[in-house]
Amino acid sequence: MTLVFNDVKPVPQTHVMIIGVGGYPYLLGGTQEKPNQLSGIDGLGQLTSPPVSAAEFYSAVLDFHQSSSWTRSLGSVELLISNPPNTNAVLQGVQYEAPTLNNIRNAYHAWRSRCDSSPDNVAIFYFCGHGLEKGEHFLLAEDFGVDPNDPWFECFAFDTTRLAFHTCAAKTQCFFIDACRQLTASLLTHIVPVTPLQNPSLRTADCPYNLTVKASAMNEAAYGRKNEASFFTKALINGLKGDAAMLRDGEWQIMTSSISSNINELLQQVKPSEGYKQRCISTIGDTTQILKFVNPPQVEVNVYCNPDEALSFASLTCTNLKTKDVQSRPPMPDPWTVNLPAGIYRVEAQFNAAPYVNAHEHIHAVPPVYNQKIQCL
Amino acid sequence: MMTATMSTTMDKNSSLQVTTASHHPDFQNISKLVEIRNENYEIVATKWISGLSYKSPALEPGVYVVSISLSSGDKKEKVVELQPNEDKPVQIDFSGISPRETQEWAYLAKNMGRAVNKSKSLINEIIIGSPVAQIDNIEAKKWEFINSSWQVSGVQIPNQIGPEGESFVLDIDQSMQVLQVGGGGIPWICVCLPPSPRLRCLIKPSEGPVDAVHPLDITVSTENWKAESLLALLTSGSINRAKSLMKIEQAERLLYDKVADPAAAAIGGYYLLKMSALEQMHDWANNLANWFQWMPDGAIIHAWQLLKKADSKQEVVDKKVRERFLQAIQRGIPIYTEGLRLLYDGLKLLSYSSSDSDAMDNAIKDALKHMQAYVQAVDWSQETTTFIAVSPDQPGTGK
Question: Do residue A260 and residue B239 have CB atoms under 8 angstroms apart?
């Protein structure tokens, strides 16, 4: 059973398919490893990040459902996850299935069929796992390598699948692919069959609201820390949760273009200390709303004084100019970190005695972090 | 009732006089998005301007956020307090954006594969990218596609590219042309050149991931700044901004004005395709393809216009689409990366369509194979088609 959420109604809805492949039994370190027979597969092995990434994406999808944030209510979620050996299941109490090619294919067609039920449906596809590229982005299913004589059978041609999905009636189609796109030595010496999950047809015109985001550029890798969600998935979730939100018509909205135009900046924000090793590539058509929030997204505001010593004598306040809500802090030696809804604030430092002088600044606090230094001399 | 109305009218007696500044005269013509938000976080004014100043409508006294966004992704803003009866000057200065005045056009108008500053305060900035060093012994060549073969000629550029980069101007006439830069141990990289009597070029060390991107970043731009800004926004996925910069009828005009500027017409055509504004393309994509037979982009745009249109004469359409895609291949390499993507996707669709019949169309099969080499070598983040190659017809081999 890959359908882990089913609330399909005869109205336009959001239908989601999530795949996280971490356990590859036939690759290096797998439970049925075939190292000698699969020597040409360039050392591909087990991945700890994809199951966590898929689980976190799934949790975010449900959070949006619970907060009624989906522009089109959540109708269904297909979930396929495999864990590497000796790791715990990532979602307790959720009965998901292994992302074998057959399961992926079946889930894809079931998901596609639901998406096809209305042009106003929103289709969301998420994949995290091994990927390789040679004129086509190949995504590797869990059972990749089951037949050492034809190891390339258990993968699917993503780009062609994406092209084929344009025939689906859903006008909003979002695909998030968190996988490497490197050309390996073995790919150079193999002719890999291009097998999509569905064949495209010449009558496939682009859907109006296409958003296809890949976590890496051509010939580049996607990264993540062990046992954590990948950098791309963290960035994507942060963006969807509000870091990419824009205020339109009184609502905080996530548009498809909010993700495409911000994804690289979001990625840098989740791993600023690790340089700039990963570039996302987006393909987008026209833009449309997929999520909406009543409340503004949260911003981490850090308030400093100049000179630093003034903090020990400063009574600090942040006043939201719209709501008039006031946050305050008594004098303390450390900078003040406060989480605030995005908005325009008056940030003020008040002193009881010289040499410091009362001072204020107006700030425009936007996600994820805003730093403000107040001149107090 | 009357009192309330008068009070409201009297309240709105202030305004903001926004001026933007930069060193280079090009800034005057480059599109900038002005947005003004009030204390309630509502947008009270928004407008793309091409001059240097903007006067807001009458505003109530209060606090306002004034922001200027560029198509490069850069954004600067100020929070200001507006007093009653005040016409407050707000200056937003972009003059520090580029290390050299002569390169400002690239930093102001183009995506350059770098981390842009969307931060709102100085200590909010994140320093990203490796320190850039000087790159020596650089050479450049210009290739032209004449009678189905690539002819090479020399181009004079500085042979040292310092951290700030080097900029120069090329006169590119209406033919399929490619700038190739490399040498000195660096793989050769090719950039397709849109026609322009004053095509701006900037070559600088890349700020992208080391060992992943080419060491050199090459940015080119015509002086049609509005079309170039639209291209930058489309490439970065900023569709909302693209839509506010250019209405459909303005893009329609770009396509209409193909004789004056075929490169801008192609940008307009790609935008209209993206917006599915097929009727507004009229027969002008067909004309672009027919009248500029050196340019692959017109053929690609026309093919996709036909593909996207539902038509009862399906076989006729399919034949024309096939013809257009093969024409595009014969003409060289699409100038714009969007064209390359559409050409490759179109050929793939045709290959599936023809595989339904007895045998796969050999011409399409060959074209797809030909394009696969480019697809593998291209940098998809660039606006103009940019790929590693020892010569334009040998993509993927830079050394």
Answer: yes
